[in-house]
Amino acid sequence: MSIMLLDIGNVIVDVDFQRFCRSVARDRESGAALVFDRYCASELKNRFDSGLVAPFDYLGMIAGDPDTRSMPLLELKTAWQDIFSPKPEAGDAVRQLRENHTLWIMSDTDPLHVTFLFNRCQELKLAERYWFSFEHGRLKREREAFLEVLAASGRPAEEFILIDDRADNCGSAETCGIRTLLFRNWPETLDRLKDL
């Protein structure tokens, strides 16, 4: 029985950071692009996902940005969290995986998103263990993230399979001897899993 390391974003749920950016930017077009670059796809976001920036400090930076509109911090928090939607077939696929494998969630994410997802996504509760970047200080593109998983588990790399939508994360896992499936959709992933 393999241990499946499942990513969350764009594997179990779809992620739309543009929804957040359009809802908080003063200018819904050019301003949304600036907000995205600063807070959704930046080194600052990587630091937040690595647990180096506290949640309300992060929200405070966004609130103080001249390109974001004035809004209560609670409203800003809700907008930050409300970027996920269920991915078709994910629920059935995760339950199917659980029949023959041990499920661990391994995700580059922040505590605000994790809290929201656990309240909305029942599939996450099917996992036996969780490995979140903000708790461990490493992103999956870093080889050390997977070395820590292996060390903590006491299990050999050959027992793990990573399912992730990012090629750089898969490449990082492979350098540690972990097999990977680059995720595109669930039917293809389940079919390819039979060959591993």
In a few lines, what is going on in this structure?
The protein is about 50% helix and about 15% strand. The chain has two domains: about 5-15 and about 85-195, HAD superfamily/HAD-like (Rossmann fold), CATH 3.40.50.1000; about 15-80.
Task: State the main characteristics.
7 strands, alpha/beta, 2 domains, globular, 196 residues, Rossmann fold, 11 helices, single chain
Please provide a written account of the structure.
The protein is α/β, with parallel strands linked by helices. The chain folds into two domains: 3-14 and 87-193, 3-Layer(aba) Sandwich (Rossmann fold), CATH 3.40.50.1000; 17-82. The protein is 48% helix and 15% strand. The chain contains eleven helices and seven strands. The strands form two sheets. A five-stranded parallel beta sheet has the order 5-4-1-6-7, with helices on both faces. α1 (17-24) packs across α2 (30-39).
Q: Calculate Rg over CA atoms.
A: 17 Å
Alpha-beta content class? alpha/beta
The tally of structural domains comes to 2
CATH architecture of the largest domain: 3-Layer(aba) Sandwich
Which CATH class of the largest domain is shown? Alpha Beta
Tell me the series of helices and strands, N- to C-terminal: EEHHHHHEHEHEHHEHEH
CATH topology of the largest domain: Rossmann fold
Question: How many E-type strands?
Answer: 7
Percent range for helical residues? Answer: 40-55%
Tell me the strand order in the biggest sheet.
Answer: 5-4-1-6-7
The multimeric state of the shown protein is: single chain
Which blocks of ≥5 consecutive residues have pLDDT under 50? none
Overall geometric form: globular
